[in-house]
């Protein structure tokens, strides 16, 4: 036994000396040759294949989507199996951190009965920069090892499976974003983004949206058909996009519905402010930069576009006494000259999107549907027109559930009757019904609403009477003018007039 130990000891010592000699005294280029041939020999003898997935790839060292998808996939799978995990802040994700395999950790996975090994590695490359604080670049990569007889299965089935899973998990975990376009003068260099974003956290849901149940269900059905319609759109040769026009008086829930749609579809929202876009070319650039699975919104389309082709620039409220910055003034001057035309917008919607992969929804909102150019809302551009109108009883019940947490109350029938007789927007109903203090219970809130509805009804009746009187007066004036005209004619023809009024 003793002799065996001494044999092992001397062998180990020999290996260590040989390694030191190799490392210290053999020139680098010979060493690299030896390493290359050693790898070749191992590759020749070993039945295993290894694939490397680096974090950065391509000429410009772009962050690899492949790497991110694998990272997400492994984070889901490895967090149960790996012993050494790493917690990192998760950008653009719902959870505050992401658990992934730590460096130099390995896990095994069985896929269709085949054993595979995933490894997480890191290599350090020292940068040759002249700095007081020497930095080193970290290059992370994953390796996938498997037996060479499973090569086809891995490349044709397993890797696509990992990517698909990784991407869908990332989509599920990501945070929604609300983008707004930067004013064109601030676009700056090529690297500056045309869109700025914040996290989109609007609480609106279809369940809390007050409108008729059937209309709501129809919209949900329409959205679902669109979402699952990739094959269908491919088959009919149409770009995977859908246009909605939301119209109705202010406060009827158009913006709320857009938020509900975004939450339901899990799409980002691009709020496109046309008045900040210089011309059609910039509009095109902005639209190209939108990503798949997004809703592009143009609110109050009638105010942003003059339908004769010119753009209306929103008047900015100038603070009194404010001295104008010359640069700002020049920008504004420029703004006045800039224009996005209706045809430019239509061309963008029809043309560019057809070339952009992925699904997109475009929504226009307006308070005055009758003002819109038929070209803008024709079918194919605006596939669905949704009217959001004054509060009906069904919508009121949703609001009562949202704001007061009640399904029924004795006063509901009074509200129902009044809602049939008067027009009130859901925004006003909600405002009138909302508890304003802790003492406000359901009954108090409903009574407040009834009071407001009665007032609104009275006001509407008075307005109706006023309008009727005005109309009658106008008709009287018209009739009088006609009588005068007739009398004038008679004087001309007969040379005298008969004054019927005086005795
Ligand atoms: N149908 C609705 N369901 C639930 N809440 C609503 C509804 N309509 C309005 N509201 C409430 O009223 C507020 C204003 O509604 P919203 O901004 O969606 O109206 P809008 O139609 O976009 O108005 P505008 O035409 O002025 O832009 C919302 O914050 C929401 O709380
Ligand atoms: Mg709105």
UniProtKB/TrEMBL annotation:
Essential cofactor(s): Mg(2+)
Coiled coil: none
Domain AAA+ ATPase positions: 240-392
Catalytically driven reaction(s): ATP + H2O = ADP + phosphate + H(+)
MF terms in GO: ATP binding; ATP hydrolysis activity
Gene Ontology BP, a term: response to stress
Keyword tags: ATP-binding, Hydrolase, Magnesium, Nucleotide-binding
Basic and acidic residues compositional bias, start-end: 456-493
Segments of this protein annotated with the region Disordered: 456-503
Alphabetical list of InterPro entries matching this protein: AAA+_ATPase, AAA_N_dom, At3g28540-like_C, ATPase_AAA_core, ATPase_AAA_CS, Mitochondrial_chaperone_BCS1, P-loop_NTPase
Family listed: Belongs to the AAA ATPase family. BCS1 subfamily.
Protein name: Mitochondrial chaperone BCS1
């Amino acid at each position: 036994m003793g002799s065996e130990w001494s044999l092992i000891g001397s062998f180990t010592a020999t290996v260590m000396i040989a390694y030191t000699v190799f490392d210290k005294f053999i020139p680098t280029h010979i060493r690299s040759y030896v390493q290359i041939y050693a790898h070749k020999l191992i590759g020749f003898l070993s039945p295993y294949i290894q694939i490397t997935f680096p974090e950065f790839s391509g000429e410009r060292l772009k962050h690899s989507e492949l790497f991110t998808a694998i990272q997400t996939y492994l984070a889901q799978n490895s967090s149960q199996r790996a012993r050494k995990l790493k917690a990192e802040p998760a950008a653009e994700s719902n959870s505050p951190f992401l658990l992934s395999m730590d460096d130099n950790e390995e896990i095994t996975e069985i896929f269709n009965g085949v054993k595979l090994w995933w490894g997480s590695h890191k290599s350090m490359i020292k940068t040759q920069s002249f700095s007081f604080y020497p930095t080193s670049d970290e290059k992370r990569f994953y390796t996938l090892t498997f037996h060479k007889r499973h090569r086809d299965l891995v490349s044709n089935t397993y890797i696509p499976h990992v990517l698909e899973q990784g991407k869908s998990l990332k989509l599920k975990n990501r945070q929604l974003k609300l983008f707004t376009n930067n004013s064109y003068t601030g676009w700056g260099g090529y690297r500056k983004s045309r869109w700025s974003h914040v996290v989109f956290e609007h609480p609106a849901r279809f369940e809390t949206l007050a409108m008729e149940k059937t209309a709501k269900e129809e919209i949900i059905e329409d959205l679902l058909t669109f979402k699952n319609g990739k094959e269908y759109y491919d088959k009919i040769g149409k770009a995977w996009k859908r246009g909605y026009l939301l119209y109705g008086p202010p406060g009827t829930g158009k913006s709320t519905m857009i938020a509900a749609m975004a939450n339901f579809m899990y799409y980002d929202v691009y709020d496109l402010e046309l008045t900040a876009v210089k011309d059609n070319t910039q509009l095109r650039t902005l639209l190209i930069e939108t990503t798949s699975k997004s809703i592009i919104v143009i609110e109050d389309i009638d105010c942003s576009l003059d339908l004769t082709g010119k753009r209306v620039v929103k008047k900015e409220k100038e603070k009194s006494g404010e001295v104008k910055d010359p640069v700002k003034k020049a920008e504004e001057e420029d703004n006045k000259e800039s224009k996005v035309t209706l045809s430019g917008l239509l061309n963008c919607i029809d043309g560019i999107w057809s070339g952009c992969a992925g699904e997109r929804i475009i929504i226009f909102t307006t308070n005055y549907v009758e003002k819109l150019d038929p070209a803008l809302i024709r079918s194919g551009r605006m596939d669905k027109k949704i009217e959001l109108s004054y509060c009906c009883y069904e919508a009121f019940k949703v609001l009562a559930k949202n704001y007061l947490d009640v399904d029924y109350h004795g006063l509901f029938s009074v509200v129902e009757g009044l809602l049939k007789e008067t027009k009130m927007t859901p925004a006003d109903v909600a405002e009138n019904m909302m508890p304003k203090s802790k003492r406000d219970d359901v009954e108090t809130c409903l009574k407040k609403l009834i009071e407001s509805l009665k007032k609104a009804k009275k006001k509407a009746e008075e307005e109706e009477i006023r309008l009727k009187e005005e109309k009658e007066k106008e008709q009287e004036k018209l009739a009088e003018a006609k009588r005068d005209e007739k009398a004038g004619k008679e004087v001309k023809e007969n040379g005298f007039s008969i004054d019927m009024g005086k005795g």
